[in-house]
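Q: Here's a chain of 279 amino acids. Please give me its 3D structure as tokens.
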Amino acid sequence: MDYYLSVATFAALNVILALGLNLISGFCGQVSLGHAAFYGLGAYGAALCSVAGLPMGLSVAVGMMVAGAFGILTGFAALRVREDFLAIVTMGVGFLFLGAVRKQAWLGAEMGIAKIPSPLDKWGYAMLAIGGAVALLLLSLHVRRSWMGRAFGAVAQDEDAARSIGIDVSGYKIAAFFIGTAAAGLAGGIYAHMTQLIVPDAFNFVQSVTILAMVVVGGIGSTLGVVAGAVLLTLMPEMFRFINDYKLLVYGGLLLAVMRFSPEGLAGLVHRWTGRRLA
């Protein structure tokens, strides 16, 4: 039972991460290849607060704000670059994060932070992660149908056209980065308390690629498709153990296959087979 609870918890955390990235890249069209850095910022922020004696709920909230604050800074950088250049900038954010935490003794350097207080049992963390995933799912569905979602879509399609009809392009870009990275911070805070140990390599470029693969396989821009993609790519390494040794190879192959045969991911396949679009 403990094994299944752990898998369910990690699947829910990956749903949170993927939905957060989908808000940035799928809704607003801002390419991000450094999402794991914000996952790590949330984890380190929450861990430091918890070790200092703050309760878990407040520690996770601080982790979310730390990740969201750096997301806003990244959003400002996104105002001056687009597409491939933005991807490089966000990739650089990921490498900067890893370089910083590996050199700072007060962050544990390569050894990370251990003995993080863990006030909940496995059931508690599973329910917390699933609750967070459901809350972000509902938020994403609401945003999609709201004026903000329409503005995000306009920015993603054509920034100049969106600006010409009075949409605050800069404001919506920054808002997308804040919401998406704060969500990653939530996942990081839960992860830190659940594992009681965080190390830099848990938030490396491979993790960013994994999150991106979940979004693309599920169907970038589709909320329910991204949820399916996150769950699928969480379960695959558990069902087929060899994938763990060749994760980048397998995920790279999946991305190539999706781009070639179904650019809209699982959501596109559902639409093709049933004639209905996933939200």
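Q: Can you summarize the key feature?
A: Strands lie at 113-114, 197-198.
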